[in-house]
Amino acid sequence: MKKRSAKNDIVIVSNPQDMFSRPETQALLGDIRLLIESARRRLSVAADTEMVLLYWHIGERIRKDILRMERADYGKQIVQTLSGKLTLEYGRGFTRTNLFNMIRCAEVFPDREIVHALSGQLSWTHFREIIYLEDNLKRDFYAEMCRIERWNTRTLHAKIQGMLYERTALSKKSEKLIQQELATLREEDRMTPDLVFRDPYFLDFLGLSDTYSERDLEAAILHELERFLLELGTDFTFAARQKRITIDREDYYLDLLFYHRSMRRLVAIELKLGKFQAQDKGQMELYLRWLDKYERREGEESPLGLILCAEKTAEHVELLQLETSGIRVAEYLTELPPRRVIEAKLHEAIRLAREQIAAREVPRLEGAK
């Protein structure tokens, strides 16, 4: 029951619970909840950031003292003693193992400003996953990708186990170019094709084995589209399957079309069951030029093409100079061999790619003399 006061025209509700059934009260309550939850999230992020910076400072301080010591055993004793004292005073978080994690963090990330920038997105658990990676460039790659793509620690662990870095085109560049590209990512938050595309793609989740057709492969991808998008990488959105392309009254059909938001590009994907052939380049070039003419919107970059095949040869890919046409070729694996086999193959591919880069650099440098 509600009464109206004539003097001030105020509604008096005899049952306060009736107030919560009114739309304006529900809206007010919803807004307040959003404010509280947003503030709590900011406080949580701020707390994580401060904890990471605290641990980095502790690691840096201990590291400086231990580096002055000639005996490593004595340094370990100091850490053990510190752990006992700090745990008694401040509780968990200062175990011997975690103190060594802090020291390691300060060793591999000596620049406080970089740690501060990363700590806005990376928790201490993220840092613990990254700091023991031996390759500096690999470590920086995962740190920056975590920051840009907002991976949780489970995703980060899966990406490392899946050898994402080794599968990117970036890993096959010279050390200098990798450093430059990571610096651009750090400063401009801009993804490049070398960071986005990988080789090979792991499609073991499709459940395909033995004999299957291109149509089967396409259907399996669409059936497991969410997992396929995860393997492609963040920021891909599905646009079309069997995209009809009409040129001079002749119809062609592009297998899959995606859009990459941060690169602002359409990405055309063609599926090939067998070995990559030279004529596959011409077909993809035709599709890309049509997309550039008829589908590309204002503000977007030129479309890119990805040819997924069961097998390719490095010399074919190199001689065709595919990247100048905006085309990438990558193998896909529907059944994964043992990790050591994949790892060996990827490391060999990286070694050969870097040797080719070095070989091309020598004549250029000699000509400049």
What does the model show?
It is a single chain. This protein has 369 residues and is an alpha/beta fold. Among the domains are: 98 residues, no CATH class; 124 residues, Trna Endonuclease, Chain: A, domain 1, CATH 3.40.1350. The chain is built from 15 helices and eight strands. Helix 1 packs across helix 3 and helix 11 crosses helix 12. It is globular and about 80 Å long.
Strand order of the largest sheet: 3-8-7-6-5-4
- The helix-and-strand class reads alpha/beta
User: Element order, helices and strands?
Assistant: EEHHHHHHHHHHEHHEEEHEHEH
Gyration radius over CA: 28 Å
Largest sheet: 6 strands, mixed
Residue share in β-strands:
15-25%
Mean pLDDT: 86
CATH fold group of the domain at 213-336: Trna Endonuclease, Chain: A, domain 1
Distance between the termini: 95 Å
CATH hierarchy: architecture of the domain at 213-336: 3-Layer(aba) Sandwich
The unreliable regions are none
**Overall shape:** globular
Quantity of strands, as a count: 8
CATH C-level class of the domain at 213-336 is Alpha Beta
Q: How much helicity do the residues have?
A: 55-70%
User: Count of helices?
Assistant: 15
Gist?
Helix content is 57%, strand content 15%. It has 369 residues and is of the alpha/beta class. Among the domains are: 14-111, no CATH class; 213-336, 3-Layer(aba) Sandwich (Trna Endonuclease, Chain: A, domain 1).
